[in-house]
Amino acid sequence: MNYGPLIFLAAFFALASSWFGVVLTPQLNVGQLQQTNTLNGALYPVARPGTAQQGLQVYRANGCAQCHSQQIGQSGTVFDVLLANAGTNRAALSEALQKVKPTLSAADADQLLSRIPVEVARFTRREEADAAVKTLSVGGAKAQFLVCPVGPDITRGWGKRRNVAEDYLFDSPTLLGSVRIGPDLANVGVRQPDINWHLRHLYAPKSEVKGSTMPSYPYLFEKRKAGRQPSSEALALTSELAAEKGWEIVPTPEGKALVAYLVSLRSDAPLFISPISLASAAPAEVGTNASAANASAATNAPASK
Amino acid sequence: MNANLNQPVMVDVAEPKAVSGQVPVWLFLLGFVLLFWGMYYFDQRSGWFKTEVYSPYISVADLQRFQPPTGGVDLGRGRAIYENVCALCHNPDGAGKPNQAPPLAGSEWATGSPARMLRIPLAGLTGPIDVKGQQWNLAMPAMGAQMSDEDLAATLSYIRLSWGNKASEITPEMVKAIRAQVGNRSQPFTGPELLSIPEK
Fold first, then answer.
1. Which of the residues A85, B34, B100, B124 could staple to A142 if both were Cys, CB 3.0 to 4.6 A apart?
2. For the ranges A82-86, A153-157, B17-21, B23-27, which has the lowest average pLDDT?
């Protein structure tokens, strides 16, 4: 018996269904993605400046994505109630504060009130936050809630909110990365906007981050004879790393492009699809560039020890 | 030998036979439970294939509940903008910095007439002014000219309500009105010029 047509059809349908699911559906979903507006009305995302666009290729060529991911995760969203102004009736406000947060003693409430503007409570449901804001609005006091994404990545200070497809609109190719031997870089331009820090870090990682396992990239720099005036681009290095007298270390165009790309990596704009209040509560320690391996075990980071 | 040939061949295994039996009821029930669980899981996590919905949000309606408050004056936003833009010179606690910017906390300019205060970020300020009994002679660029009405209103309201300041809020409508009056003026205001503007 001739099973040829049957085998052909079975193979055809198996391949066609996976093509529909893996190629066509995502293409229809996000293939036509356009710039959108942030919650402030600004256009988002904006294209990277030219050098940063070149830097993406340097990032790619050096395999940075082998050790650094560019995707912030988020496990939930909470509402932090911010007390912005104490108003005139302090006693009533202190009472209202204890009503909102029953565990608070009167002394603690007064202590909180002395630090205005301050976040006083955290809720997981919108209704509770609305009720708390209402309770706290006594005697001209002003309270409001802030929308704060939470999750392990955000606790580490790596990002402010989860990444969405729009964040990568101008990346070609998209360098998501999958391994976190180093910290996530989706938001590194917000964490560390200092270009000189990045240059020194690329030249000698351990000089900036103690115990860093990142290799150095000396070929993104050149050592040259200093002119009468030292170059404004020369790295300010510690004495054991600095070049001998009369010489200086300056970044090559590739090095400058890579750093321009790194500081252009920021995904903190408040979007409808990934909402966040601009003032995120309790900013996690600024610039925690610690690698995932020693920050928390709740990731897919390989144990790098 | 012949006797053996005449004997029938003994078949020791019976042919298997298909008989109909009843499927146990619990198998159906299990199937329904699994189907229900699968649909519930899909409903909670798929976002119904909407492009806008990413986990941890489950639907557009859910996403709507997590939007920051709009309308009115968002002091949280005001604080963020203040700390990004203004605090470099005016200090995060509004105390000002010598030779960079006068204080905002307790300043009669920051807590006084909105019409005068609003003109400073919209067009800039230059020349000598008195703040809290001390003379300052510096220049401030038009830091707020590029901000949206909402952002500028939130920032100025934050200044007027923080660090012990207890002045009125500034609304986006007020910003819009003053922005129209300032027009596309390129010269910064001076102290005496601001004082000549009526308080209202």
1. A85
2. A82-86
Question: Based on the domain organization, do B35 and B60 belong to the same domain?
Answer: yes
Q: What is the pLDDT of residues A42-83, one digit of tens each?
A: 788 888 889 999 999 999 999 999 999 999 999 999 998 888
User: What interface predicted TM-score (ipTM) does this complex get?
Assistant: 0.74
Average pLDDT of span A223-228: 87
- Is the residue at B2 inside a domain? no
* Domain C-terminal end among B65, B88, B119: B65
Phi, psi of A233 (to 5 degrees): -90, -10
For an interface test with A, give the residue of B44, B50, B57 to mutate (most A CBs within 10 A): B57
Contact at 8 Å (CB) between A82 and A279?
A: yes
Task: State the fold for domain A44-69+154-274.
Answer: Cytochrome Bc1 Complex; Chain D, domain 2 (1.10.760)
Residues B17-26 as b/e (b if ≥16 CB within 10 A, e otherwise) read eeeeeeeeee
Judge whether B16 is closer than 8 Å to chain A, CB to CB. no
Give B 33-92 residues with CB within 8 A of chain A. 49, 51-57, 63, 65-70, 74-77, 79-81, 83
Q: What is the DSSP letter of B139?
A: E
Partner residue opposite A144 with nearest CB, options B49, B69, B151: B69
The answer to whether residue B100 sits within a structural domain is: yes
Determine the number of helices (DSSP H) and then strands (DSSP E) in chain B: 10, 3
CA–CA dist B165, B85 (Å, integer): 19
Contact check, Cβ <8 Å, B56/A29: no
Q: Count Cα neighbours of B175 within 13 Å in the Cβ-side half-sphere.
A: 21
Residue carrying structure tokens 């390129």: B186
